[in-house]
Design goal:
Elements: E1 2-6, E2 11-18, E3 21-27, E4 34-40, E5 48-51, E6 58-59, H1 64-72, E7 74-75, E8 78-79, H2 80-87, E9 90-95, E10 100-106, H3 110-121, H4 128-146, H5 149-161, H6 175-179, H7 183-193, E11 199-205, H8 209-219, E12 228-230, E13 243-246, E14 254-260, H9 268-286, H10 291-298, E15 307-312, E16 317-324, H11 328-340, H12 347-363, H13 368-379, H14 388-393, H15 397-406, E17 413-418
Parallel strand pairs: 3-11, 13-17
Antiparallel strand pairs: 1-2, 2-3, 4-10, 4-11, 5-6, 5-12, 7-8, 9-10, 14-16, 14-17, 15-16
Length: about 425
C-alpha cells in the first residue's frame, strides 16, 4: 500500500491496486460521516465498442449505461436501497456522459455498507421480467425531464453545439431506445465495462485502511484484463446551429449561452490545466463581483439565477452561461460585444482570483462528500487531483487572454432559449 502525504494540507492518501481495481483512501480522523464511491469508466457516450479486437464495432441503444445503473440496485434477494437503509446508510448513483458511479454515506456500519456496495456492483441480476418493468420507470423519468425547462435549455444547447458526437443525446436515452434494451444487451455491456481494471474505489472518512484492504480482497473478483475498444468520435469544430428555442410557457424566459471549445485534448495534464484556466476566466468575468456581471445585472438582462460552468473531456469541451432573462437575445449580444472589445487582464486581479480558487480548493477537504466526489472525478481519468495547487499557481495572464482571443468568439457561440 502506497502512502502519500499531501504536505500543504497535511493529509495522507493511501492507495493500492487489487485485481485491477484502483483503491484510494483518505482517512479523516474525528469526522463522523464516511463516504465510499465506486466509479466505472463507462457512461452514456460509450454506445459503440468492440471487444478483444475480434468483434466488429457494435452500437448499443442510447441510455443503456443509465439503464444498467438502475438495474444493479435490484437483486434476487430484494432491493439494495432497503438493505442500505437497515444499516443506516444513504446510497445513491448517477450516470453521466463519461462515467457511472455508485456511492453511499453513513455514520455507522461503514464496513458492512462497504461490503454491500462492492457485492451489489459486482453481482448483476437481469431477467426479462425485471428489465421489462424498469422500462416503464425510465420512460416516466424521460418524460418528466422533457417537461423540465432547465433540462430542456441544457439539452437544446448541446444539440445546437454538437453535430454528431453522442454528447448531444439524452443520458437516459429515448423512449424507443429504452424499450429496445434486452437482458442480453445489459449483460454484454456490464461484462465489458464493469471490470475492476476499468473502475476505482474512493473512500473518505474516519476509517481504517487495513480493514478496508481486507474487505476489498475478499469481495472484489478477478475478471481478467479490460479489453474493450471504444469507437472514437470525430466531432467537427463548427457549431451545428446558432440558436434553438422551445416554448414551455415559463413566466420569465430561461436561456443558456454556450461556447463550443475546439481546444480539447487527449492529454490529461492539458485537460487539468485548461479546467483551471477556465475556472479563473469564469471567476474573473462571470462571478457576482465581476464588472460584466454588474453591467448585465444593472441592465436587467440577468437575475440571481445566473450561473456558469466549463466542461472538458478528451473528445469535447464547452463553456455554458445560464440565466433567466427578459431578453435572451440582448443578453447574448451584450456578452459577445463585451469580449469583442479589448479586455485587459490585470495581474493583481488574476492573483486575487488564483488565491480565491486555492481557498475554495482547500475548503473541499472539510467536506467528506465533496472531497470524495472530487477525488473520484480525477482519479478515474488518471489525473492527479492534488496537482491543482501547482497548476493554479502557474496560470498566467496570457492563458486567460488566449481564452478570450481564441475561444469566446461569435463563431463558437450558441443560444438556447425556453420561453
Amino acid at each position: 500500500m502506497d502512502i502519500r502525504n499531501i504536505d500543504y494540507i497535511d493529509e495522507n492518501l493511501y492507495s493500492y491496486v487489487y485485481n485491477g481495481l484502483r483503491v484510494y483512501i483518505m482517512p479523516k480522523k474525528g469526522y463522523s460521516k464516511k463516504f465510499a464511491m465506486i466509479t466505472v469508466n463507462y457512461g452514456s457516450n460509450d454506445i459503440c465498442f468492440s471487444v478483444d479486437g475480434k468483434e466488429e464495432f457494435k452500437t448499443y441503444p442510447l441510455g443503456i449505461a443509465h439503464f444498467l445503473e438502475h438495474k444493479l440496485f435490484e437483486e434476487q434477494s430484494g432491493n439494495i436501497f432497503d438493505q442500505f437503509s437497515k444499516l443506516g446508510a444513504s446510497p445513491n448513483a448517477y450516470t453521466n456522459f463519461e462515467n457511472t458511479a455508485y456511492y453511499f454515506t453513513c455514520t455507522d456500519n461503514f464496513y458492512e455498507s462497504l461490503k454491500l456496495l462492492i457485492n451489489f456492483v459486482f453481482n448483476p441480476y437481469f431477467t426479462e421480467e425485471n428489465v421489462q418493468k424498469e422500462k416503464g420507470i425510465i420512460e416516466q423519468e424521460i418524460r418528466m425531464y422533457d417537461d423540465n425547462p432547465g433540462f430542456k435549455i441544457y439539452s437544446n444547447a448541446l444539440l445546437a453545439m454538437y453535430n454528431s458526437h453522442p454528447l448531444k443525446n439524452d443520458i437516459a436515452g429515448t423512449v424507443d431506445s429504452v424499450y429496445s434494451i434486452t437482458p442480453e444487451m445489459l449483460y454484454k455491456c456490464y461484462n465489458t465495462f464493469y471490470n475492476p481494471n476499468n473502475m476505482i474505489l474512493v473512500i473518505v472518512g474516519d476509517v481504517d485502511e487495513n480493514t478496508i484492504k481486507t474487505i476489498v480482497e475478499r469481495c472484489v473478483p478477478d475478471k481478467g484484463h479490460f479489453n474493450a475498444k471504444l469507437l472514437k468520435h470525430e466531432e467537427p469544430i463548427n457549431i451545428k446551429e446558432k440558436q434553438i428555442k422551445a416554448h414551455m410557457g415559463v413566466s420569465i424566459p430561461n436561456c443558456i449561452i454556450g461556447y463550443k471549445d475546439a481546444y480539447y485534448s487527449q492529454d490529461e495534464k492539458y485537460i487539468f490545466k485548461r479546467n483551471a484556466v477556465m475556472s479563473a476566466f469564469g471567476k474573473m468575468f462571470f462571478s457576482k463581483t465581476s464588472k460584466l456581471y454588474e453591467k448585465l445585472y444593472e441592465e436587467g438582462l440577468i437575475n440571481e439565477s445566473f450561473s456558469y460552468d466549463y466542461v472538458i473531456e478528451k473528445e469535447y469541451a464547452h463553456f455554458l452561461i445560464g440565466s433567466e432573462s427578459k431578453d435572451p437575445i440582448a443578453l447574448n449580444e451584450a456578452i459577445i460585444d463585451y469580449f469583442e472589445k479589448t479586455v485587459c487582464i490585470e495581474e493583481d486581479e488574476l492573483n486575487r482570483i488564483k488565491k480565491s480558487l486555492l481557498g475554495s480548493y482547500v475548503s473541499k477537504f472539510n467536506s467528506i462528500e465533496g472531497l470524495g466526489n472530487y477525488l473520484s472525478r480525477y482519479f478515474i481519468n488518471n489525473i492527479d487531483p492534488f496537482s491543482y495547487k501547482a497548476v493554479v499557481e502557474s496560470i498566467k495572464a496570457e492563458d486567460v487572454e488566449d481564452v478570450i482571443n481564441n475561444f469566446i468568439k461569435r463563431e463558437n457561440n450558441v443560444l438556447s432559449v425556453v420561453d
